[in-house]
Structures are given as C-alpha cells and as structure tokens.
Amino acid sequence: MFQLDDKFLQDLGLDSLPADQKEAFLAHIYSELELRVGVRLSEGLSDEQLGEFESFVDRKEDKVRAWVGAHTPDYQNDQAYEQLKANAPEGTAEAIVLAEYASLKWLSMNRPNYRDVVAQVLAELKSEIMSNRDTILGGQVA
Prior knowledge:
70% of the residues lie in helices and 0% in strands. It is mostly helical.
C-alpha cells in the first residue's frame, strides 16, 4: 500500500529534516492519517456498526472471535489471515492477529472502498504538507 518512511519524506521534500524530527513527524502523520481516515470511513455507519468495528480496534477478544466465527469461520485457511500472521512480529498473540484480520474483513464488507479512502486522505494530507513545507522546515532551503 504505502509506507511512512524516509522515502515518503523525500517525496515531500522533507528529507532535510533533522533525524530526531523525522521520526516524530512521521508518527504525527500516521496519527493524523489514522484519525482522518477513521472519520471519513465512519460517515454513514450506524452506532452498531461503529461499536462492532471499535471492538476490533480495542481487541476485545470475545467480540472478535464471535464476529469471525459468524462471518469467516474458516479464517485459518484464508490467505489474508496467513499473510497477517506471517508478517506479525515474532511472539505476537494470535488474538492480536485475529483482531487485525477481523478489522480488514469487516472493512471489506462494510466499506469496500476503504483503500480508496485511505489513498484519497493520504493525497490530501500530502498536499497540505507540501503547501506548508517551508514552515515545517523552519525556513530552511529544501
């Protein structure tokens, strides 16, 4: 999909940020992206749907397992689950992988355009960052 890393900063003309500021800036961008995407995706959802998705984010294992059991009972044979499990850091609890899997499956069912929403919000955020690049760099020449 996309990565918030040095290449991302370079594409925005922010590769001259001091090293200690790069990490903080990327963390801020990730939080802002997550917030904006969440707001956009929640538009038009019922309180029940929002609560259901929130239980995945909060990793409420009983609710995650109940949802997965009802909607994707053969999850262990799903390539998406296998990939999440393979890419998870060593020692990651199965319940955490399952919550991530449930989130992705739920989004594909309830917000099938979620990838497009992420891409659109990211493009908007990039545009904002680029228009404020000089301020972000503190007047430095990029």
